[in-house]
Design brief:
40% of the residues lie in helices and 15% in strands. It is built from eight helices and eight strands, in the order E-E-H-H-E-H-E-E-E-E-E-H-H-H-H-H. It has helices at 20-25, 28-42, 50-57, 106-114, 119-130, 140-148, 157-166, 174-185; strands at residues 9-13, 16-19, 47-48, 68-71, 79-81, 84-87, 95-98, 101-104. The strands form three sheets. It has a three-stranded mixed beta sheet with strand order 3-8-7. Strands 4-6-5 form a three-stranded mixed beta sheet.
Length: 203
């Protein structure tokens, strides 16, 4: 029988199904990644951007975003249908292949997200992208260059600069990055990350 005739399956997209028990066991960000792959299955050639690109790059995704984002520079304007949002821009994006999918590269993805995410989440995204533990670390200078190539004074530019200026490759988790943002807002000095303490000869 076809999957839609089977009980215990959830339809992600037309023709794309997943067992309900497996779906429920996934973390929210993993459910989102599964939804991105489902869109890729029914819309081959889509170029993923924003949170959808972040999920594919292994960058932080906060909860389960409502929309799947694709980039189409040839579109006359940004549009949406259902939970798929098609973005366009006069500023080009660098697009590459990742696991056989077309995706806006990490540097442009970080800049795009840093301009629209809440500041603490933007900082966590930049931290993760430049960390040595990331599968393909991005040089902070590259992120700065990409931001400078966007329209001066464009929406979210100040927010992105705030996150980029405070980014630290030593941050080891989203929670650590968010904590640093809160510490900054409270007016305390920046914490020393990964500081080693010794006590009676032990580290």
């Amino acid at each position: 029988r076809r999957p839609r005739e089977l009980s215990g399956h959830l339809q992600l997209r037309r023709g794309v199904y997943v067992p309900v028990q497996s779906w429920r066991a996934l973390a929210p960000w993993d459910r989102y990644l599964a939804r991105v792959h489902a869109v890729a299955a029914i819309r081959p050639g889509s170029v993923f951007c924003l949170e959808s690109a972040a999920a594919l790059h292994g960058l932080p995704v906060f909860g389960e975003p409502r929309n799947v984002h694709v980039f189409d520079p040839a579109a006359a304007r940004s549009t949406s249908f259902g939970d798929i949002v098609v973005h366009t821009s006069q500023t080009p994006r660098t697009v590459g292949r990742l696991d056989h999918l077309d995706v806006v590269d990490s540097a442009d993805t970080v800049v795009d997200l840093a301009r629209v995410l809440p500041p603490a989440f933007a900082l966590a995204t930049v931290d993760a992208a430049i960390a040595s533990g990331h599968p393909a670390p991005v040089a902070l200078e590259t992120i700065v260059d990409r931001l400078s190539g966007r329209a001066i004074g464009g929406r979210g530019t100040r927010r992105a600069r705030w996150a980029i200026e405070r980014a630290d490759a030593r941050a080891e988790s989203v929670g650590e990055s968010v904590s640093r943002a809160v510490i900054d807002w409270l007016g305390y000095p920046p914490p020393a990350l990964q500081h080693m303490f010794r006590f009676e000869g032990s580290e």
